[in-house]
Amino acid sequence: MHRTLPLAALVTGVGRRRGIGAAIARGLAEDGFDLALSFSDDYDRRVNAEPSDVETLAEELRALGRRVVLLPGDLADPEVPPRLVDAAREALGPLGALVLCHCESVDSSILDTTVESFDRHYAVNVRASWLLEKSFAEQVPVGADSPGGEVIALTSDHTVHNLPYGATKGALDRLILAGTRELADRGIRTNVINPGPIDTGWMDDDVRASGAAQTPGGELGGPSTVADLVRFLVSERGSWIRGQLLYSNGGFATPAV
């Protein structure tokens, strides 16, 4: 059954205009979605060494005629995820899509990861994602007449020397994909995207060259390549793709046979 989703979306992790979340927000805005954008200025300053510039992105999206609400918050606090969904719905009406681009990602390994760091990664990458998915589902009515919804999360295979990030991304995959069956009575479909390495400002020349060399086409994808797939999945044309972990990485690290 095809369902026309409400044209309002909550996108998390949209702190920087050059990030994946920002590219997804632009694409959804072009497709007619009003947007609630969640971000953490503390994370951007702490990990990305630059402040959030989401206000500038919001002005750009409003120029397209879209309603945009900005929702700051630390997702390590379990009270924040449901509050974000409530605020988004209050501002925009029923939500048709939830796109999880947020993460805690601080490099560390098996021998030097601290309990504090591991727990924060789990709180942000796993617990907050579950609470967001749960709160999103609760605002979608049950039944054949429900407009349904789409939940999409971004994942990664990067675990070596990025242990708590990679381990918690594995848990994220499972809890999101479970939604396709558990939330079927609400018409909610769920998918996970693994985009491979995307340069959002963290790569140097050596990392870019190495990543490109491991991709059959000899180049890396950008934030817009991730946004293109998200736009398809939330569209009616993508509605039959459900419960999938999709590798949209240009063939990165595909074995030669």
UniProtKB/TrEMBL annotation:
The name this protein goes by in its record: SDR family oxidoreductase
Keywords for the protein's UniProt record, in alphabetical order: Oxidoreductase
The species this protein was found in: Brachybacterium huguangmaarense
Pfam family name, one: adh_short_C2
Family as reported in the entry's similarity comment: Belongs to the short-chain dehydrogenases/reductases (SDR) family.
InterPro entries, alphabetized: NAD(P)-bd_dom_sf, SDR_fam
